[in-house]
Structure of Response regulator transcription factor:
Amino acid sequence: MSTHASHPQRDESAPRSLVFLIEDDPAVTKLVLNALAEFGFNAEGFNTGAAMLRRMQTEKPDLCIVDLGLPDMDGIDLVRRITAQTSAGVLILTGRGHTADRVMGLELGGDDYMTKPFESRELVARVRSILRRRMAANGAAGAQQRRYASFLGWRIDCAANILRAPDGTEHLLGTAETQVLRCFVERPHQILTREQLMGARDLLPTDRSIDVRISRLRRKIEVDPHDPVIIKTVYGAGYMFAAAVTWG
């Protein structure tokens, strides 16, 4: 079962953006779809993960809003399938208060999360922010189809999202991880704020998604992720990539 919402004028910050909402609570579905329509998004609602996956076979969304408490499957598994099958952004919407659920969702490729209850305008702001970041990342990738950066024996293909270790092992990075790592290698030995790394000016102080992405990158490239020497924390300021980088 699916529901649809449309609006005659789209918001200019997110042209032609299609959002899928996977939520089994009719009241929440109505609230979110109405808010998205009011701000110019095309949106479709689904009350099960299976219904959304069937729809995704014929229409690829720009972003998915996923409730973790679905009746037919675990929302974490749905996030995994969305990120594996599409390049869509993912906003996790959950009534669960467990930090582990949020961290797991972000590690599987989610871009952001919100807990219920929530303000509809804040949800729209986060949707806009995710889409802007992804548009910026896609634009940078499109400007140069194949670009390689090397540091300390590591090599990243920014177009294919592949990170190759000094021993030749390849890691397929998520879009969000690639965006952060690319930001680092383009500005080595510079202090970068959380907002710069996320590509967002409206980042909330409570938003910890960048910290999750930094943690994932450290686990891949640091000898000791708990005592990092490549991606350093500059307390009160942000992060710094402390390695020489060559391009080509």
